[in-house]
Write a structure and sequence with these properties.
Structural class: mainly alpha
Helix content: over 70%
Mean pLDDT: 81
Number of strands: 4
Strand order of the largest sheet: 1-2
Strand content: under 5%
Radius of gyration: 21 Å
Order of helices and strands: HEEHHHHHHEEHHHHHHHHHHHHH
Shape: globular
Number of helices: 20
Low-confidence stretches: 267-271
Length: 460
């Protein structure tokens, strides 16, 4: 436990503390020190990709699939899978926590990290496409950071030896996704207990049963996510628009509060600017997962005509996650009178805010949305696990099935158990994934940038 807590602190704790005017401090964790400068670097090198190529992202998203490999998936389907895992509990409970601790200004810094992270997401997804390979088990293609890290460290053609860093990345990913499975089980069972007074054991049993039917079938994962993700994201966005229209008069004051608190005009004097900036930045990084190496596991599976196209789609995925969905949660909360949510936190706070806007329907709606967000996340992370299990244990159904069963067990335990340190495996796992991914991503980024230039030449 001591070693585990130390690793957790190294990744997420304040390694450097910078004093600020007014008695505030700015604490910088290892991951923030790594991801924010990297995001700035990629944003500059791609010449603010999200703004320049936003129209292309929309066009590529609606392109028809031109299949070259049996059982392959389209670029849009890969985007849907990555969106399923990005759009999860962090977009609901995580945003609430960031605003509760850091104030409304945290929302602005979430937006900033998303704009920076979109370029990082482009680089890692493009590399995943460049180094993808055929999948002999599931059909189509597979790949991800374990595969391009392997190519970076094992230069000789035909060598079967595994790269140590690639192995460590794959192990970190499998550990992370087991930890997340437990958190998903607990969040869903808690939300249904609050909304419907259903005992956690029944909610968890049904959740695990439905999940097992889907993930243990070869081709069900992508088909289910194709249906769930657009529906859940669309309904959540639509309901938020209704709430905004109902409270349209308060909107200027909300945006004024976000921008004034973002730059510490009020917080600097109270010594809270550091909390505003870092809570927004950390939540943005954790939510959009740019740089962690998880989304490239889906990006590599896409059967698409140019690697840069999938990179652009994954950059668009960061926009959907943070700028759209996280902002929805922020607006629901900030349009609620603070007196109504005083002393509440997490899911209770969000359900109280929805109760204010929509009555009992709002409480039920949030419980159902959390179920859909969490369920799609679980299915998506098991899709991510496929290439990493294959890299570690080879191409066989036994290892693939055993990992799925382990994740289902973790999902069940999480639904019944109170908080345990095992849940922190998700945070530690994603932190280690990011470290190992960035070791190869930064020196290999020239290939992704070259792919972008080639794509832009063909567009001209």
């Amino acid at each position: 436990m001591t070693v585990f807590r130390f690793v957790y602190w190294i990744l997420w704790g304040d390694l450097i503390t910078i004093p600020l005017p007014g008695g505030s401090t700015l604490g910088l964790s290892l991951l923030v020190l790594l991801l924010i400068p990297s995001g700035i670097y990629f944003t500059v090198r791609t010449r603010f990709l999200l703004f320049r190529r936003f129209g292309d992202m929309l066009k590529i998203a609606v392109e028809k699939k031109t299949s070259t490999q049996k059982h392959s998936i389209s670029g849009l389907q890969a985007l849907i899978i990555s969106t399923a895992t990005r759009v999860g509990m962090g977009n609901l409970v995580g945003v609430v926590a960031a605003i509760s601790i850091g104030g409304a200004g945290a929302v602005f810094w979430m937006w900033v990290t998303a704009l920076l992270g979109s370029s990082t997401a482009f680089a890692e997804a493009t590399l995943a496409q460049i180094y993808k390979e055929k999948d002999p088990l599931y059909g189509g293609y597979r790949g991800g950071p374990a595969y391009y890290i392997h190519h970076f460290f094992v230069k000789e053609e035909g060598k079967k030896k595994r790269s140590v860093i690639a192995v460590l990345f794959a192990i970190s990913g499998l550990i992370c996704w087991c930890g997340i499975s437990q958190v998903i089980g607990n969040s869903v069972s808690s939300a249904f207990k609050n909304a419907f007074h259903i005992p956690p054991v029944w909610t968890t049993a049904v959740l695990v049963l439905i999940a097992a039917v889907i993930v243990l079938r070869r081709d069900a994962t992508v088909k289910v996510l194709d249906i769930i993700v657009p529906i859940m994201a669309g309904f959540y966005f639509l309901l938020t628009l209704i709430i905004i229209v109902m409270n349209i008069g308060q909107l200027p004051a909300v945006f004024s509060r976000i921008f004034s608190e973002a730059f510490g005009l009020r917080q600097a004097a109270a010594g809270g600017f550091g909390a505003v900036l870092m809570n927004g930045a950390k939540r943005g990084l954790f939510s959009n997962e740019a740089g962690s190496g998880s989304a490239p596991c889906a990006a590599a599976a896409a059967d698409i005509s140019h690697p840069a196209k999938e990179g652009l789609l994954q950059a668009f995925g960061v926009f959907i996650d943070t700028i759209v969905i996280c902002s929805c949660s922020a607006m629901i909360m900030l349009l609620t009178p603070q007196s109504m949510t005083q002393g509440l936190e997490g899911m209770d706070l969000l359900q109280q805010a929805m109760n204010y806007h929509m009555g009992s329907f709002g409480v039920i709606f949030i419980a159902v949305v959390l179920w859909l967000f969490s369920f799609s996340t679980f299915i998506g992370i098991l899709f991510y696990a496929r290439p990493n299990v294959a890299y570690l244990f080879g191409d066989n159904w036994l290892s693939q099935t055993l990992y799925k069963l382990l994740a289902l067990v973790m999902l069940f335990i999480g639904g019944l158990a109170a908080y345990t340190f095992v849940w922190d495996l998700g945070d530690v796992g994603i932190g280690l994934m990011t470290i190992f991914n960035m070791i190869a991503l930064i020196p290999m980024s020239g290939q992704a940038l070259a792919s972008l230039k080639e794509y832009e030449r063909t567009r001209k």
